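Progress report, Aim 2. The chain analyzed during this reporting quarter is listed below.
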Amino acid sequence: MLKRIFATIVAAACLMTTVACTKLVEDNPSETTAEVTEATTAATEATTVPTTVTTEATTVTTAEPEPDIRTVTLLCAGDNLIHSSIYNQAHRRAKANGDEDGYDFDYVYESIEGYFEDVDIAILNQETIVTDELEPSDYPNFCSPGDLGRKMVDLGFNVISICNNHVLDRGETGLISTLNYWKEQEDVICYGAYESEDDMNNIRTTEINGITFAFLGYTEHTNGLYLPSNTECWIIRITDANMDLIEEQVRYADSIADVVVVSVHYGTEVSNELSTLQKTFTPKLVEWGADLIIGTQAHTVETMEYIDKPDGGQAFVFYGLGNLVSAMADPLAMVGILGKLEITKNMDTGEITIENVRAIPIITQYGYNYSNIHIETYASYTDDLLSAHGCSGFTQDTINKVLSYIPEEYLSIE
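Predicted structure tokens for the chain:
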């Protein structure tokens, strides 16, 4: 608007100057020609003086793009050790509901159902073979009905390790039967024992939310039981003779996956202290490329920790998760944990981190003569439940002792 007003004034001035000059020329052309010319030139120059407009500089800052961080939530559970008292009770419950031949395990696991709601990967050590083809059996040669495995899948377990000391309890026939059983379960990964060498070399992997996981399993022993010499099946024991094979597998898994999960069945049974094998073998796994190590076999809780990796990252190890459920009689075996954590990947840099590790205590609860065996969460455990427990010598002091092996920063009562 100011520019338009200024232009109008200048134009009017020019018009007036021109008229004045014309009139002077007409009145006395001989005397005023030079003066008029000078005045006209001055007026013209005045109208053409350049105008400088100063504006305030504006700085535009472009924000850095947010990093693409992906997260996977993982849960792991210890030994699912199914004694006859557990499957017989499940059979009676099924019959009470009109299923004469089935097994209803809902009651055993109902208190932990909520822990699977936000989980992407749930890993279980299935301590007993599971099959529809063989009759169930108890210690020392365990075999569990197929309804148990289907309950585990319904509960939310989608990764099953069968590498443990009871995997050969029913011989090669039982192993092949349970391998076939788990192959039939939709969207379930089973690892730790294999039908052939090619099957063993086919390392199980899965990709979730842009993060690739690989799964391997090794066991300290198989209770003195061995496959026949002409078998095609494979189980990898933790022996000096197998160290090169184990290293080769872990390093290869590290080359094809972001996260290498190794299930290891090792340690001293019903002891909260680490064995020599646990102390020496675990760092080797980390050196070779393991990111998460899930320890089972002790049937009670052992410690857990981060271990530095050669590449500058950190692996995490649960040395012993204890039992998910069992009908054992040792007080220390009544307390187990669910391990829960988050694995994140920076998609721009490839960096993997394990965060928000939680050890959630659970209690195997039963009454007189192993009646009504089921899992209770420690967060909801009461004095009445404790006083009614059928395990002789199981006290609050027992619970406190077991929980003392969990570092405070990981213990999560929920």
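The longest strand covers residues 352-365. The first helix runs from residue 2 to 27. These observations will guide the mutagenesis work planned for the next reporting period.
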